[in-house]
Amino acid sequence: MLTGTLVWPASGLGQKQRLKFGWVTDIHYAFRETKWNRFYSESILKLKEAVELFNSSRLDFVIETGDFKDQNEQPDYEKTMQYLKKVEGEFAKYKGDRFHVFGNHDVDSISKDDFLNIVENSGIPKDKSYYSFERNGIKCIVLDACFRSDGTPYNKGDFDWTDTIIPDPQLNWLKNELTGNGFPVIVFVHQRLDGPGNENYYVNNSEEIRKILEDSGKVLAVFQGHYHEGAYNKINSIHYITEKALIEGSGYDNNSYSIATVTVSGDIRINGFRKMEDLKIRRG
To answer: Which CATH superfamily is domain 17-281 in?
Structure first.
């Protein structure tokens, strides 16, 4: 049994905050045997700890950036749906708005529609796998990179996790969202955008996407998952923050989640918990 409690210290960048949200990624919940140092069944208790902390903090929303659930070694649709319902039930204990980002494991044995029909993205229509919302004068854009290079959506395990793009219709939508917006922007995506598209963990057309973000002159940061070790990069004044995976390792000491604060000047602070490190980022 996992035991332990945490209290978030009152610390920041010494500036007035504009936005504060809870962030977790790569929960991979399933009731199955441990593999690759992934303790699938413990994820629900690790998430519970994170949600309890989020509820004790004054947040504008919480978000998970993909691979919310997992499946058995031998895929079983009904069991996978049970895992999704259970982990969403725990996430729903957060007393406020919550949002999801599609990860490749979210469609390992179910469809995107199956996933979207179970989870809640607060104020967002059920059929939207990518979307935007505004909080406190900041626009938040959620992208869906779970498409094959031919533009076909990932569906019930019909994909190669290294073959991932954001297709043209979504890119056109993204351009419109950025063009018609006067607010600073933060972006959420599962697969990484801060590297070459011909390597694992990165969206295949990441260079094209980065140019769209850069040309807008509005994007402060991109919050990513997928790469379980975590990472940080700054490319042309945009900060790319990859959070460490919640799933890796046994026990609360191996948990990982954070609270992110964006100040009125566009600076960002990541207060990391357990394995996730703190990070202070100055705008630009």
So the answer is: Metallo-dependent phosphatases (3.60.21.10)
Q: Are 226 and 189 in contact, with CB atoms under 8 Å apart?
A: no
Q: Give per-residue pLDDT as tens, 68-115.
A: 999 999 999 999 999 999 999 999 999 999 999 999 999 999 999 999
Q: What H or E segment, with its residue span, contains residue 245?
A: none
Residue 234, classed as helix, strand or coil, is strand
pTM value surpassing 0.85: yes
Euclidean distance between the first and final Cα of the chain, in Å? 44
- Number of other residues whose CB lies within 10 A of the CB of residue 183: 13
Gyration radius (Cα) of the chain, Å:
18
- Cα 281 to Cα 268: distance, rounded to the nearest angstrom: 5
| Sequence-ordered list of residues with C-beta below 8 angstroms from that of 87, at least 6 positions apart, any chain | 27, 29, 43, 44, 47, 68, 69
